[in-house]
Amino acid sequence: MNTLTNFYREREQAILGGGFILLLILIWQTVPALISLPRGIALFFTTPVEVIKSFYQLVVKNEIQSHVYVSAVEFIVGLGLAILVGLPLGLVMGRSKILDAMLDPFVTAFNATPRLVFLPLLILWMGIGIWSKIMIVFVGALFPLLINTYEGVKNVDRVLVNVVRSFGASEWQTMKVVVLPNSVPYIVVGLRLAIGRALLGVVVGEFFASSRGLGFMIAGAATNYKVDIVFVGVAIFMGLSLALTHLVKRLESRLSRWRPDEVKTY
User: What pLDDT does 84 receive?
Assistant: First the structure.
């Protein structure tokens, strides 16, 4: 009994979250059997079993693999570029008053501008190939990560910074020992937001200018009233979001354990 209790306590969040999802899926599956839906609604309604069948057929026919591959490349490359640019730029802006004054108006303006308005320009400059979608993913994911990293640097305890500087630490050592570790919670929040914006960028880009990808598949299925295929694409995006968010949470927990030791050992 104690073993089961400990097992539940250690995995309580996952069990409750997964159980609630399964409950909703069960309700979704049983609604048509319990309630007679109007014909207009039933035409555009599907069930989890039908979605699974459609997914299986798409895999067997080798129709979904290329869509997943294209969307995955757009997401990984676009998000990767956003991390490579946004993380160091946020750190530098947070530490440099000159760069902060120079770049803050542009960051604020671009962040407040809907990403969709950049899509026509990107298509004109880069065509309807994969790079226009990568760039819309990059633009969408860049600013949440950059701004949260910047805020994390600005909110670092000045006492800690002054202490390490008084011991003769260089700017790089200060950044490594104090600024970056104490900015981790902000960076993680920025990364979680960036993942969501990146997935949104994939869908939006493929809706308007693509011949491959999950967004293109969803748009084509919706046009042809294939609701089950629409839900296949939606389920893949939702599953990817959950998996990536879980990975980010695990990364945060590991970095949180590392953070105090780094500060203490200086």
Answer: 94
